[in-house]
Structures are given as structure tokens and as C-alpha cells.
Amino acid sequence: MIFLFYLLSAIMIVCALLVVFSRNPINNVIYLILCFIAMAGHYILLNAQFLAVVHIIVYTGAIMVLFLFVIMLLNLNKAIIFRKSTVTRVSAVVTGGIFFLVLLAATRQTFEIHAKYPFNSDIGLVSGIGKALFGEFLLPFEISSILFISAMVGAMMFGKKDE
Amino acid sequence: MESSSLLLFFLAAITLVGAAMVFSSYIPPTSTNAVKFEPYECGIETIGDTWLQYTVGYYLFAILFLIFDVETIFLFPWAVVMRSAGMTGFIEILIFFAILGLGLFYGWKKHALRWE
Amino acid sequence: MSALIFIAIFGIIVLYLGFANNKAILAPAAIGGLLITMALSIKDWGVGSKYFHDMIVVDNFSIAFNVSMLIITILIFLFGVNYYKRMEHHVAEQYALMIFALTGAFLMTSYSNLIMLFLGIEILSIPLYILAGGKKSSYRSNEASFKYFLLGSFSTAFFLFGIALVYGASSTFYLPEINTYIAQFNGHLPPMLMVGLLFILIGVSFKVAVAPFHFWSPDVYEGAPTLVTAFMATVVKTAGFAAFYRLLGMGLLPLPAALEKTLWVMTGLSLLVGNLAALKQSNFKRLLAYSAIVHTGFMLLAMLSQHDSAGSVLLYYTFVYSLATIPLFIIFIHMKRSAKGLEDLVIFRGLYKQKPWVAVFMTILLMSLAGLPPTSGFMAKYQVFTLAISQGYIAITIFAIVMAIIGVYYYFYVLREAFTDSDEPNPILIPFLNAALIVVCGIAVVLLGLFTFTIPI
Questions:
Q1: How many distinct structural domains can be found in chain A?
Q2: Residue A139 is nearest to which of C52, C129, C133, comparing CB atoms?
């Protein structure tokens, strides 16, 4: 298990770095997909099978297709090189470094968490999610439909030509 | 399932697929020349880039697909707990679907589903 | 609770009213719906109940803020009657999206679970990203929408990460439970919890445009259609501060020292950065954006005091600020139209000569924003300062008072333009409804200063 964890993490980190450093936008998307698949592996390790499947279907499937569409929309024929001033670059590096340090400090000093809920191996199964969704989290579930409908309206407003 | 058997499964999959790819690249006779890398080996030479700019229309359909993709995913947990959720669960999922259905109907009336 | 359900459904109804092909019915119908929502909200006054496994807590605090936002939205819709007259397409969508955004704002005032706060912020934001790009043919509008969307989703990522860290440490999403969990550490929070709380704070601060996270606001305010800018400057700010106060008041009091210091710095920075930048602005919308950042500084000061009455003071402050801001945007849009699309401060030239009464009301509104007596803006600032001093925040209050005095300069700079004669006067047309709005808001700003209200929350 530990071996799998490190393998998946290594794949994720390498792919995430390649997303940032790769020049070709299509390659970036492919690496991001690999990164997402490795993340789905992490979900399986955590016993959250349903989440893993959803992650593959929605993120690696649908959202990455959207990403590809956006890249095709942008018409990135000529490699555009964004020139930034030295001050911007230095401050970006410093900010990123500080952010990394803070996160490192936070995760290094983590303490033992006394789990509030007893371990339940079925929690990640579909039925567990269903019980939570139609019980405790009913209102967030219902109200998210308002989120979807406003996104839909926005897509139609922007995507359609006005007659 | 044991995690070791899962690992074995992945290893077997990777070995089989990898072996097939390695075999297919070594066994057949190969010949390379510049013309082979043209999009059309025998035909008119291509002019300009092969990168086509898509119309924004694709994007509209993609995002509609995405929204209903997520909607279907919400359907799965309901189907599993359908018996225990009972009538209230049924009404809840119905409300959710009705609101998204109204969104789809709105797009239909706006002719957003018509390809131009 | 019934108000929340009603307004969610009502947004869809307004969306479908667009098919009636009659723009004239949209605004009255939308206002009618908001009035019904208001009645449904007030019905629950004083009851105080929890719904859906404590996801939503409807108490006097949330009702007071909801009603205040409803009043402001009604004013904006009345403004919209004339504003959308020239718009051909998607008028119903504009109203519907604003109502959807209001649904999110309702969630932000009444959540008690971090998941609900996240959903509320998202339901508020996504319609706004769309509304900001409402002028499809205008590059600036597109730019505003895109910038807002990119930076907004970036801050949402921080916010979600913060929720995850807090959940990881405390294994709960509920604010009261987080509060008891924090209390056991006696101010020495474990780093994971601390970082999580800071990230949540960053996410909320971004939405209300507090100083280190304010960079988006001048560009978005400038590029977005003026009516949407008015909506963002008023309703979104009110909702954001209600959510902010609820987060602190329900989840984090007494504030851990590190968070208190962070808030202290953010208050000072907002006041300083907003003021310094506002002094140099020539575009009216940018000026109001920077002045809004200064006002967030004052509101943060009220929150910093951690007093029980801070909620009531915040409500008064946001309401009075919104009342003064909306008519200013109305005056601005008519001056802009008469100046053929120019947005600089010079467009106000000759206002006094042509419409003396508008200039007089503009003086009152700007005085309220600057915080001069006898307007309600003065009373709002006065309440904030007394609250902060009573809780021992002397240094920052003195700094805030100095900043308030500096602020008078740029508000009067606008006024000076209004009272200067123009070389080539363009005719200014103000329709009756908008004139009535300016007058009503101007009078309300003065009256609320004479009769301040506090609400038991």
C-alpha cells in the first residue's frame, strides 16, 4: 500500500511539473489527464471508489475535453511568449516560495488526529455517498441545481450569436 | 480485493500492453522518409498550419454535456439508496431534475441546441 | 427558509418570463417577487430556527441582512427599468442572474456549515462572472468578466483548500463545532488549523475586496456594465461582510492572536491602499472602486472589535453605504450618456448649471460616502469608531480617522467638477423614475443619519 502511495504521488508530481513546464498546450492537457488518473488512484487507496470513478468520468473525461476545446478556440498557432519584468518574476518566485514554506510548516507539524467517526470501510461506496447526499447534505445537493442552471444560462448567453 | 492482487493486475496490464507495443514496433519491416510524415502521403501539399480554430459552438455543447454528466452522477447514489430514501428521496431527485430540465428547456426555446 | 426556496424558484420564473417578449413586465414582476420574498423573510423574524441538519440557521441577523439586500436589489431593478431599455437581447437573463446571485447571498448570510458558505459564494459569483461580461461587444466588459472569473476561481481554490485543512484538523464543517474545537487550544492553534483558517479568510476577503486581495476590483468595476457594478458594490459587499461576520462571530470568537493580527493589517492596508490609489483616479468607476476598498477597511474595523453589537453596526454601515452608492451610479450613467460614453470625472462639469437639484443631491450622497455630518455616512463611521475604541483598538482607529479625513479630498474633487461650468454643455436627460430614485435615496441617507437604527441580533 505504501509503495502504491509513493508511486502514485511520484507520477502526480512529475506530471504536474510537466503541465507547467511543457510548451505545447496539447501536451499540457495530456499531462494533466495523467495527473488526474493518478489522483483517482489515490482515491481508490483511500477506499473512495465512487469518487475515483466520478473523478475519471467528470474530470479526465468531460472537463479535459472542455480544456481541449478552449485550447482549440484560442488558436495558439504561434508560440506566444509572455514577457514579464524582472520585478514581477522575482516577486512571483518569492511569493511562491513563501507559500510553499507555509504549507510545508503546516503539514510537517501536523498532529495526531483523533478520528471523530469510527473507521468504516463502506463509507466511500456509492450507498454511503447516497445516504449522506439524501440525508445530511440534502440542501447543498438541491441548491447546487441553481448553480448549474446559472452556468447553463451563462453558456447560452456567451455561446450564442445574438440574432 | 487484496491490494497485492490489484498491483498484480496493474502489472499484468502494463506488461501485456507494453509487450504488444514493443513487438509491433520491432517485428514489421520499417522504412522512413520525409513524405511519410505528410498528412496526405499522395495528394496536394498542405498549406499553412493544421491547427484549425474551432467555433465557440462546440464549447456550448461541451458545457451542456458537462452539466448533464454531473447530473447523471448524482443519479447513481440515489439509485443505490432508492429503497431506503423512499418517497422523499424520489421527490428530492425529481426537484433536482426538474430544475435542470427547466434549464435544458430554456436552452431549447432559445435555439441554443440548434447547430449553426 | 421559505424565502430562500421562493427566491430560488423565482429566479427560474423570471428566466422564463423572457419568452413573453415583453420587456416592460420584467422589472415589475421581478420587484413583485422580491417583495414577496421580503414578506416571507420578515415572517420568520424573532423565531430563530435551524433547517436541514443545521445547514441553514435563520436568525434575526440573517433576516436583517436579507431584507437589507432585498431593498437594495429592488432599487437596482428600478434603475434597470431605464438602463435596459436600449438592450435588445437577454434582458430577462440579467434579472434572473441577479436573482440567482441573491440566492447565493441569502445562503451566505444564513449558513452555519462551511459547505453552505462555499456553495453560497459560488452561487453568488458565477452569475456575477456572467453579468460582468454582459456587454458582449465590448472588449472591456469581456476583460472584466475574464479577469473576475480567473481570479475568483483562484481564490475559491484557496478557500476550498482552507475548508479541507480545517476539516482535516477538526473533522467537522459546522461552525459551532469548529468554535468549540478551537477553544480547547487556548489560542495556540495547531499549524494545519491555522493555515486552513487563514485560507478561508483569504477566500472571503477576496470576495469583499479587502486590501491585499483587491487587485481585481478596479478593473472589474470599470469594465462591467454600470448596473452590474452597482450590484457588485452594494449587494455583493453586504453579503460578503455578512458571511465574514458570521464566520468570525460563530466560528472563531474569541479571535486567535494570529488571526487578529492578520485582520488588523488587512484593515490598515485597505484604508491606506484604497485612499492613496483613489487620489490619483480620473475614471469615476475606478474612483468608486477604490473608495469601496477604503469602506471595506472601515467595515473590517467594526469586525475587528469583536463586540456583540458589531453585527448591527455592520448592517447599518453596509445599508447606508449602498443607499449612497446606487444613486451615484445612476447620476453617473446619465452624465456618461450625455457625454457620449466618456467616463472621466470631467463629465460631471456643468451639472449644477443644468440640473441644480441633482448637484445638491450628489453633494449629500458624496458627503455621506465621505462621512460628513449630518448624513448617515457620518453616523455609520462614528459607530464604527466608538465600537473600536471601546474595545481598545486606539491606534488603528486614529489611523482610520486620518484616512477618513484624507478621503474627503477626492469626494470633493468630484463635487468641484459638478459645480464647475462646462465649456460645451450637453443636454442631460434624467427620466422620472431615476430622478425619483435619486431623491428618495438622498432623503433616506439624511433621515437615516438623524434616526439611526440598531437591530437586536
A1: 2
A2: C52
Residue A134 with chain B: CB contacts under 8 Å: 77-78, 81, 85, 88-89, 92
Which CATH code fits B3-109?
Answer: 1.20.58.1610
Strand partners of residue C283: C344
* Confidence at residue A76, expressed as pLDDT on a 0 to 100 scale: 65
Q: Is the pLDDT of residue C93 over 70?
A: yes
The answer to whether residue A83 is domain-embedded is no
What range defines the domain where residue A51 resides? 1-77
Neighbours of chain B (3+ CB pairs under 8 A): A, C
Give the DSSP H/E element, type plus range, for residue C51: strand C49-51
- Same domain, yes or no: A68 and A5: yes
- In this complex, which of C12, C16, C19 lies closest to B99 when CB atoms are compared? C12
- How much is the average pLDDT of C31-59? 90
DSSP calls for C298-348: HHHHHHHT--TTHHHHHHHHHHHHHHHHHHHHHHHHHHHHHTTT--BGGGG
Helix, strand or coil for residue A118? coil
ipTM for the whole complex: 0.88
Residues of A in contact with B107 (CB under 8 A): 152, 156
- Nearest chain B alpha carbon to C90: B110
DSSP A63: I
The structural domains of chain B, with segments of one domain joined by +, span: 3-109
Q: Do A65 and A125 belong together in one domain?
A: no
Are C195 and A158 inside 8 Å of each other by CB? no
Averaged pLDDT, A6-14: 93
